[in-house]
Amino acid sequence: MQFAYPCMLAPDVEEGVGYVVTFPDVPEAITGAQTREESLYLAEDALAVALSAYVDNREEIPVPSPVADGQEVVAVPPILAAKLALYMAMRRQQVTKVALAARLGLSESAVRKLLNPDHRSHISQVEKALRAVGRYLLVHDGAYNIHAGKSGSHPGSLRDRITHGS
After folding, report:
1. Of all helices (H) and strands (E), which one includes residue 93?
2. Which residues form the domain of 103?
3. pLDDT digits (tens, 9 = 90+) for 4-21
């Protein structure tokens, strides 16, 4: 599962200046700033905090919807994406923290830290835990430019890669 979500970037009508960023799939994630670029930069943090709350509340992580015209795409940092993938795999397989700890030869508290979005974990530890639940980590690299104008208007944009699978 990718943890890259479409968002809407709109002028801030209440303040009369700047932009507001909202996520249709994650309504709790709202942010904004004076400039378009700063708004999209802050959107990553707002998305990460909102998705972390789903984990804290033991809720299902929303699946990103397809990107529509006029939307931008914001992804969470890679370590958080790996932790969210681990959380989702454990939920789907009904694997408890104690059971995963036994598979990994770790304490339950160590597994709790691996799942904690706010705890600084080493990516190799999360990757090992993912393998223990039959998943693997795939890292995709690509050009990411914040640009003015219509979203996806440049060939190879993040929006194009997600909607067209390139």
Report:
1. helix 78-93
2. 78-132
3. 999 999 998 777 779 999
